[in-house]
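Title: Prediction job returns without error message
Component: structure pipeline
Severity: low
Priority: P3
Assignee: unassigned

Description:
Job completed but the reporter wants confirmation the result is attached to the right record. Sequence as submitted:
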Amino acid sequence: MVVHSQVLHNIDIVKLKNLSNVFIDFKNSPLISIMGVNGSGKSTILHALACVYKPISDTDENNKFTMFFPPTDHFDWSGTEFSITYSYGDDSKNYNKVSKKYNKQDRWTIYERRPERYVKFIGIKTCVPLIEFENKGQRIKYRATKIQTTPLDELIRNQAGFILNKNYDSLHVHEYENKTILGVKSGKTQYSALTMGAGEQRIFTILDTVFRAQNKSSLILIDEIDLLMHPFALQRLMDVLYKEAIKKDHQIIFTSHNTELFKLKDKVQLRHIHQTDSQTICLPNTTPDVTRRMTGESVKSIEVYVEDELAEAIVMHIASSLGISKDVFINKYGAAINVFTVSAGLLLSGQSIRNALFVLDGDVYITSEDKDKQLKKMVTGNGDKIDILRDEVLKKITQFNLPSNKSPKQFIFHCIHTLTVKLDKENEEIKNIASDIVNAGDQHNLVNLLIQQMGVNKEIGLNRIIRVASQSPDWSSFSEQVRVWLEDKKNELHLA
């Protein structure tokens, strides 16, 4: 059977080293960055993923659990249990989605029963300069030097030059003793990997792995991708990897500590791993502010968590109307589903959410039953303690009161279009521009198109739009739950 179009959907870990009861999905982007503090289990996740497939051919990399989880006097890894969900196409034109369980009792899962896929793991040892493996204190003589001129070699050379902002004139292979190493020529200087900088060496290693992975739908795992890499080079590396992964349907999953990746969410999906006393939490696509909060940094008196910039502008307008904008800090958590992982994650990590509110847009997870169902997926287990925790989180999740079948953006436009009060010239202009937008193509583009035609930046545009929309008689009901909570907090905390 010919297998193609392979996709790793998720890993569901019951117990693996210090990881417990955590579900991590790998959807929505070919590039996934696993982030977290030291010791959170990032590398462990990569090590497990490196072993879940068997090689397609005898010459491919064949990673086994004992390579990454060797038995020691302290651990034999008994009780390890996790599963993956993956899919693939076959030669009968069927598309199959399968779950596969892995565990360690007396022995690990039988390796021959693993699904087949081309997998490549790049560990942090590739960060060590090659000369440190040699360091013989004597002259190294190359037996032969060959210029690499295949289209693939030229592609690697050009992309490395782009990432490092450097012109490489040629790519070489040097042979000495029984070894073969990379070399380059730049201007008048020719040198091998023995004299390359560690960051330069690693970029060539990563590019060589990714571009020479000829099997479509390969899985490439890179530990600490940003190690020894300048932020500018990291951004360009992400551009190159994203294009190649899209072109060949590769999945590239890597670990990182670099907050530069928060700026690249159009290409890289983030998975933040956080350990609590009772379980591991995976927070998808969080912001640096949420990440800092998870580790205990205190912020302003009141915290409000919202989905996006529009919701941020709405909440800030409400806070301003109450005279407490200076006391409110707003975090964005992204997609609506993230509200459950963020809110539960904070509480599980021992952080107080007494003065925090988590606001949904109001177009999904509307009922208490919807919210409870999603929260149970994030906070597993049974017992009074867990039930109390879930109840505490649920009390902190609220939403805007949207009319049926309307998104927040559509509601804002409705408020502006139906205004009958007299407006000043600035606000009248906004109403006229909004009235002229009959078809924005995608309703999600309504507000962006309005801001574009206003000719201002996004932050100013959103604030002006919300100021106009808030004059609608429908505004009070829409914002009521958030406004009442903020007003109560103002009184409780004696804020001026």
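Comment from assignee: result matches the submitted record. The CA atoms of residues 58 and 97 lie 26 Å apart.
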